[in-house]
Hints:
The protein is an alpha/beta fold. It folds into 2 domains: 2-138, Rossmann fold, CATH 3.40.50; 148-271, Rossmann fold. It has helices at 20-26, 37-42, 44-60, 76-80, 84-100, 111-119, 133-142, 175-182, 219-228, 240-252, 264-271, and strands spanning 2-8, 11-17, 32-35, 64-65, 105-108, 129-132, 158-161, 187-188, 234-237, 260-263.
Amino acid sequence: MIKCCLLCCTKLYIMHVPTMAEFLAKGEQPEVLFWVGCAGSFDQRAQKITKAFVTILEKVGIKYAILGKEEMCTGDPARRAGNEFMFQMMAYQNIQLLNGYEIKKIVTACPHCFNILKNEYPVLGGNYEVIHHATFLQQLIDEGKISMKEGGAFKGKKITYHDSCYLGRANNIYEAPRKVLEALDASLVEMKRCRSNGLCCGAGGAQMFKEEEKGDTRINIERTNEALGTGANIIAAACPFCNTMLTDGVKNKEKEDEVAVMDIAELVALSIDN
């Protein structure tokens, strides 16, 4: 049994998060498997994103499950760093597990997991419908399953959105996260470099795990400067790695008391009408 302590607004409560093993024991199948990812599982900041997304799934009544302790890394960082053997070993183990559970649909809040599950697992035998949580949330809003509070927490706030490389340029997903943000009754302001011309946060391609290369400015600092230049109160992201890099950038500028870096799932969880 896996439980999460979720902090939603001012209420602290315990939520049971079902696993695929539990569904199998009951002879049932969930609508969707939530692939949590390494960041969403182990990084303290990203765990809050995981909890926010689970809160939404629960409130909407989606029949979902996670792999729990059976989930392992997709192998994306290993492949980006050039360790193809490690990647294939991880991928084959994951595919064997997913196929054993007869998984058909996967949702994830990590664009890195999303990209590799969707585009690189099929050639190894892992064929699934993979959807990023930005698109999933947009669909729920369009279907009327998510409604926002009138005059919610972000009414009148300026929000700028940072395009994740693996979500944007790699998979051409630009509109879904923006449509989600538009539903918050906030003002969406774009950075000069956005959409297909957006600047990387500095974490992609396994760069987050290696020493910096020579240059004049750290990439995350340059990107944060662009975000701060919009005058936004909130920098929205749809990737745990982007969130980390931009948060570090905001702290570097000593603006953490003025500007928040939040995932779109967190914004929706705080705005959803019970």
